[in-house]
# Entry
Amino acid sequence: MMVLHRGEERIEHRSFMDLPSFVKPGDLLVLNDTRVVRARRFSDDGMIEFLVLENLGGNRWRSLVKPGRKMRAGATTTVDGINARVMEICADGSRVVQLDAELNLDQGGDVPLPPYMRRAADAQDQERYQTVYAQAPGAVAAPTAGLHFTPEMLKRLPHAFVTLHVGTGTFAPVKTENISEHQMHAERFTVSTDAAAAINKAKRVFAIGTTSVRVLEAAARQNGELTAQQGSTDIFIRPPQRLHYVDALLTNFHLPRSTLSMLVSAFAGREFVLRAYAEFIRERYRLFS
# Structure
């Protein structure tokens, strides 16, 4: 675990098991309890792959489809015996797919492992590619900073859960010359009454993962206090913006040119983060999961 002390711009190398020593009295860890669903589906003839992203209501789903040339508007196939028709092609290339019956994302299909794993998902991945505290089904990717925790460590630390259902847009590279023109995909989030109360009482908020940061920075407040709520956010945090509601952050290393690395730079300072990445390369740290 690389520790960046922002005030002194000092870096030290520790073990993740040392994390509790950086949690101060009055701190509250805020974790994202989303659960990855079996969102990767194949047509019954095995010719078409779907990555189911979002339920639009009425058994209509926004999905990524491969190969796209075979699934133009009006094209049909079957998935788990359910008729599926492409109703619309969205600007980002995803499809709005109408199903004739409800699709159960708890059964059948595969967990959508990240492409860099370079293997197909197996039965064990339904639990392995989850945090130990995953509860609310709806994500197509795990909030990877949370993968480091064990139940034993979590019991030792004061914590609260929020939910943000991670979508593929979180990981999309920024391709526009002007980063302010990059469009984030909205992701659904929930803050419970208990979580809001605990966060409001905390002396310092210690966010676990960038998805927790997105909830904390985007959620509505009344008189300066977080309120219980459900909503969606397409917040894009990047320099020179500052984080207003997060005091400490645990995150994995992210790809350059990603919105995630820009969020970390907004928190810790661009030049300091670039220096940390140079050390990351020298010390052979690992990216992602």
